[in-house]
Amino acid sequence: MAILNTGHTKPTLKSKNAATQDSPVYEEVSVVSVRDRYNNYPSEGLTPERLSRIFKEADSGNITRQAELFSEIEEKDPHLGSILQIRKAQTARLGWEILPASDSQLDVQIAQSAKEMFDYIENFEDALMDMLDAIGKGFSVLEILWSYSEGKVWIDNLKWVNQKRFTFFSKETILPLPNLITDSEPIYGEQLPPNKFVIHKYRSRSGILPRAGLLRPCAYMYLFKTYGIKDWVVYNELFSVPMRIGKYKSGAGKGEIEALKQAVFNLSVDSAAVISDNTLIELLESKINGNSSAFNDFISFCDKSMTKAILGHTAAVESMQGKLGSEQEAQNVRQDLLESDAVALAKTIKTYIITPWVKFNFGPNIGIPKFRFNFEDKDDLEKTANTYKTLVSMGFTEISTNHIYEKFGIPKPIEGEKTLGDNALKKTNNR
Hints:
This protein is of the alpha+beta class.
């Protein structure tokens, strides 16, 4: 169904930061900056002291180095990157629907048009993952690239903007929402134009947004794990490689001794050497019985801590082959966390995408459709259906049909649309 044309015309393009509440900004605001080409690489040579300084900067509102650090450790640590991907993907791949604000014909038509609008966005599935980047970093910002065609406002694309391009710093206090760092305002940044950006927030704890992301506690585990791996590498060098000893007879010349020395040092690389028959190379196995389990246990502890923070359980690092249910559990986010992510993301989509879109196309004082993810577990839905069936058989017949539609995520049929009940009635009459 086409979007209703309420007579709105394309507003005159104004300056980037002079948007009004009633007209979209069509020009791109977060254009590529020279800052995007450079990175401080704060994870290189990371120490507890440096990590503390980075976090203190973020606590004051300057999140540039923290944002860069979070991106690096997510890339460098395969385990951390994997569990974050699981957490985000389980919400992003959920089915979703648009529910009308009421049963009125106009609200139903607006909800159908909103579904058409989301189908028009070329990267909406990727944008869901980009919004969920807030789980690790506390917030995620996407620019809405509005377009105008045939008297209607559409969304072409949702462009993710790197967190390092924002600041929460101000002269008085920490800002509740980020400002965009620009060439004209490199310190305090500029306030984002209304109805131009999607700001998804994740709060693992109360307080300011720079401290709300789950990568904050995981950064400590990443640091400790890095130290543990370095120590493990040194241990393997000491106890896994045999000692190489070169022996030469008395009276050997300086050149002969030097050749033997080079052969001994290169033996581990080349696995071959050419020496005089007056010299000898021996490989001595280590007599010290080392135990590497302490290193493995420590690194596993760090992985478990990160997994518990991200997925809500440690099955991803504790699952064993053949253990009933363990493999499946390892792949799942804890249900209450999944539901919380889905509800928060749906609220963000309604607030920052659906609401301005409805205002631009249908005018003010119009009911806003609801965006809803279907996150109920299949087994739970089956139990719930049996519960309703039992209640009805016991005489509890005054259960709202609207409640049933919403509970099971079933779209309410449009007037005149065929339903399963029609088919069942037809079969009954044909008997």
